[in-house]
Write a structure and sequence with these properties.
The chain is α/β, with parallel strands linked by helices. The strands form seven sheets. It has a six-stranded mixed β-sheet, sandwiched between helices. Strands 16-24-23-18-19 form a five-stranded mixed β-sheet, with no helix packed on it.
């Protein structure tokens, strides 16, 4: 009997088997495997495989799956544990769908186990259309949520991956979308290491992510998908990444066509592979055969790339007996099951942020409401539930649906669209503002009006995916689009109490609403169960606990140029002007008191850590979750540093009158700064710790009526250079 080849023998390590498999391939076969739609190699028993799958907030673009809130909404939960559970559900459904597709011989795009999620770029500017895909503007929050999401996707089996996560877009990508194929992001070493790289580093070092996707743009002159600095020196070198790197889709041809750093597609492909980009989403790598023959790249470099790819497929169990792979028995019935839909509803509830609640308009007593008007272009919109990179929900509960379901049969629900999402009229033959009169009539007849405004992924998103009403997916300003502001003012003028529900993936400058509307809820794109979550909040079935993972500014005019990647005057860490709603802010239906903030040391030598403890008490009348936040301030830094920096989050649940002590470790690394050369240095000096339900800024204090307790400690000794 002929001996079984090593790559088929499960007694060998995956590394040995992957090397053996690559050694048996011809050059053309290897190059075929380096494109996202990898063909079958019949003689070796290698099935075809499409690497391109998406799972940002549920298995995407592959039919029905549980649809969770968009990533920015999940970030608003400030709850890493919840994200890990969510990602575990997503990978469970991904596994079930994959094996069912395989049984049907369906190897199509979006049907694999290599999920190109999560997006962990920093949302540095509210104009960026893809900010909705991110976990917000803060490196610490993004890092903690990224680690949890990746762990949930990849599973905890010691041998096999449940699915393969992919951290994207490495690095420095956050607009402008319309110029991404030719744009050069000029980033200082300080900003690079302080803001743009930390989440990617923990994704690699702590979460063990097995995939990284390069960005379209250049960073400091190098195209990211072929950057020696990013891919070779930092990712593979300093961070010792041993997974696979993929290009963004059709990014390689940008090297010669748009960035103009190479002269041909062969040079572009060789540059990418030589610097560590293993997989091409697109077809540029078909040119590698010619590149090898012309001496632009060695076959050994091709071998290394294909080894990385085959190793991932080995770790996913694609070459092993199904009964040996623990995830192959997940039944298709787990997809979109009742348990998972309940989980999506829970995440949606925890993602909603109560921004305003004057005169305690909320919660509404539905037993006392004879009529309610639900108004606005997003009131009955499926698109406003979805966000981008979405799957198909089996049930779409819009805000209108959720309210109708929640109220009794004796409560009349009036509905009026009020206006188009972004056009001046609903009909091409109508005059401007053609639906406002109807909305006003509905509001006049109601005890309360729920006004659903904002955006959807047709207005903000990825270049090429949106209608480009604004700017290739980016926003040109922060205003409500179209005639939404006129609708808002007309409904408010009726005198009927108004609850404004904003459905969007980014911050809007709703300054007029902040001054005139009693209750405002930021609902993001809340997923298939979103309308139930909104209704549940409005009618007081639970107390809101979401927090803003981004800053809401008063105007785009307060921000630097969109093309400027410096963090100066950006995000809560460096913004100097008056703002609308701060990062970390969100109201509750109860109240909390923070007291007895104690540090384990008031003075410590450089390199030591300490513990901070605080007592939190629910002083209101409702049981509620609370997001406890720790901010650290370096008061004597020698270089520009953040005003203060989030360095701890904890979600707790307290009943009325209940109190608990919450503790946080503060590490030496958290005390360290990044200097202007990108070095990590712990400088001696004075530090301040704040722990509360918000930032310690003036606007949060004004909105919440609460002071955030603080305590100080001093670090002694000589400056200490640390690992970044």
């Amino acid at each position: 009997m002929p001996q079984e080849p090593i790559y088929r023998n499960e007694e060998y390590s995956f590394e040995e088997r992957a090397r053996d498999l690559v050694s048996r391939m011809t050059l053309e076969e290897k190059i075929g495997q380096m494109q996202h739609s990898a063909p079958e190699i019949t003689r070796l028993g290698v099935p075809s495989y499409n690497w391109w799958s998406e799972a940002l907030h549920g298995v995407a673009r592959a039919g029905v799956a549980t649809m969770f809130p968009q990533a920015i909404g999940m970030a608003a939960t400030f709850d890493p544990d919840l994200l890990e559970k969510t990602a575990d559900i997503i990978s469970t459904e991904g596994r079930a769908k994959y094996h069912e597709f395989q049984r049907k011989g369906d190897h199509d795009i979006y049907k694999g186990l290599t999920f190109w999620s999560p997006t962990i770029n920093i949302d540095r500017d509210p104009r960026w259309g893809r900010g909705q895909e991110s976990y917000g503007e803060d490196p610490y929050l993004t890092s903690r949520l990224a680690v949890s999401f990746i762990r949930g996707i990849q599973g905890n089996d010691k041998k096999y991956l449940k699915a393969a996560a992919c951290a994207k877009h490495f690095a420095g990508h956050s607009g402008p979308e319309g110029e991404r194929h030719r744009f050069n992001a000029e980033i200082s070493q300080k900003d690079l290491w302080e803001t743009y790289l930390p989440a990617f580093e923990v994704a690699v070092r702590e979460a063990g992510v097995v995939g990284v996707m390069g960005a379209y743009n250049r960073v400091n002159g190098e195209p990211c998908c072929g950057s020696k600095t990013l891919l070779k020196d930092i990712l593979r070198g300093e961070w010792e990444f041993d997974g696979y790197v993929t290009s963004d889709c059709w990014a390689i041809k940008d090297f010669n066509e748009a960035h103009k750093v190479t002269k041909s597609i062969e040079e572009s492909s060789a540059l990418a592979v030589n610097n560590g980009c293993d997989l091409n989403c697109g077809c540029a790598y078909a040119s590698l055969t010619k590149a090898v023959r012309s001496g632009l790249i060695s076959e050994s470099a091709i071998d290394e790339a294909v080894y990385h790819l085959m190793l991932i497929r080995m770790r996913l169990g694609m070459f092993d007996k199904p009964e040996h792979v623990p995830y192959t028995t997940i039944p298709y019935e787990r997809v979109d099951c009742e348990e998972h839909r309940r989980a999506a509803l829970e995440v949606a509830k925890k993602s909603l942020v109560l921004l305003r609640n004057r005169n305690q308009l909320l919660p509404l007593n539905k037993n006392q409401l004879k009529s309610i008007a639900v108004i606005g272009p997003n009131a009955d919109s499926r698109a406003a539930l979805e966000g981008n990179y979405n799957g198909t929900a089996s049930e779409y509960v819009t805000v209108l649906n959720g309210i109708r379901e929640a109220v009794g049969p004796d409560t009349r629900v009036y509905f009026a669209e009020g206006c188009h999402l972004y056009k001046n009229s609903m009909s091409g033959l109508s005059e401007k503002y053609d639906r406002i009169a109807e909305a006003v009539s509905a509001a006049e007849r109601a005890d309360v009006a729920v006004l659903c405004l904002g955006l959807d992924a047709g207005l903000e998103g990825e270049e090429g995916d949106t209608s480009n009403e604004f700017a290739s997916g980016d926003k040109v300003n922060l205003k409500l689009p179209g005639t939404q502001q006129q609708l808002l003012e007309a409904v408010q003028k009726t005198g009927t109490p108004v609850v404004l529900v904003l459905l969007s993936g980014s911050a809007l400058a709703v300054n007029w609403a902040d001054e005139h509307v009693n209750a405002i809820v930021q609902a993001w794109y809340p997923g298939g169960q979103g309308g139930r979550a909104v209704a549940s909040l409005l009618f007081g079935e639970y107390s809101p606990s979401g927090r803003l993972p981004i800053t809401f500014y008063r105007s785009e005019e307060d921000l630097p140029d969109f093309h400027d990647y410096s963090m100066e005057n950006r995000t809560y860490r460096y913004f100097k002007k008056a703002l609308l709603y701060p990062f970390g802010y969100g109201l509750s239906y109860t109240s909390f008191r923070y007291s007895n903030l104690v540090l384990s040391a008031s003075q410590l030598p450089a390199g030591s850590g300490l513990e901070a403890r605080v007592t939190v008490e629910n002083t209101g009348t409702r049981a509620s979750d609370e997001i406890v936040q720790l901010y650290l301030q370096d008061m004597e830094a020698s270089v520009r540093v953040p005003r203060w920096q989030l360095n701890g989050i904890r979600r707790i649940t307290l009943n009325p009158g209940e109190k608990t002590e919450v503790s946080f470790p503060i590490t030496a690394r958290q005390m360290a700064l990044i200097d202007n050369d990108g070095n990590c240095v712990l400088e001696p000096g004075k530090f301040r710790v704040y722990i509360g339900g918000s930032q310690p800024d003036e606007r949060s204090r004004e909105l919440t009526g609460c002071e955030v307790p603080c305590a100080e400690f001093t670090v002694t000794g000589e400056p200490l250079h640390m690992h970044r």
